[in-house]
């Protein structure tokens, strides 16, 4: 089966290069349209009904997010492309959507296309794109939300609602303020990379905590962090000084 793709890119050289890569390394993908601004992109997507969209983040005076806001009843997967570490990359990661940095590497392209086709085949109906737009457009000072895929479906959780994370092999369990426990099939390291810049700290090989949810520290037996849900988390000796520094700096 051929999967239809639309490229939304305002630089002709970049769109031609991507078409060449797809033809050579992703033969299952057929490019059925190329657009270089919001209006032509929306029209092309509605006309061609592609399964895949390669979306440049910056489009002259607009963005790829403006395109997505105008496309109704989306039945496609999006792979973002950008020439630099764009401010929106964090929002894209939180929304569990793939992106490629330019110049595009063919192996990364193959991987992103394979995952996108698999997601489209599974017909996973969720609100990833809605979550992405909300994260990108969120008011100053408002939290990101994160996409968590559990055995029961996908949940979108504001970071402020997470108390702590616990690793169990390849799984991570999120402990929430409302008492819910959400188990996700991703290891803790992935969330460490995503959440460290947003007030979370990995104080032990198996635990990561929301620093705003730390009630106090107990020095006995090497040190424990007492969380607002009464959990007592052991602090790794290697992390103790950094944890104490963060505790002294935080604003509660």
Task: Walk me through this protein's architecture.
By secondary structure, the chain is an alpha/beta fold. It has two domains: 3-135, Response regulator (Rossmann fold, 3-Layer(aba) Sandwich), CATH 3.40.50; 157-249, LytTr DNA-binding domain (OB fold (Dihydrolipoamide Acetyltransferase, E2P)). It is built from eight helices and 17 strands. It has helices spanning 12-25, 38-48, 64-70, 89-94, 106-122, 128-137, 188-195, 240-249; strands at 3-8, 29-35, 52-56, 58-59, 62-63, 77-82, 98-101, 145-150, 153-158, 162-168, 171-176, 181-184, 200-204, 207-210, 214-218, 224-227, 232-234. The chain has a five-stranded parallel beta sheet, sandwiched between helices. It has a five-stranded antiparallel beta sheet with strand order 12-11-10-14-13, covered by helices on one side. Strand 15 and strand 16 (224-227) form a beta hairpin. Helix 2 crosses helix 3. The chain is elongated and about 65 Å long. The model has no long low-confidence stretch (mean pLDDT 89).
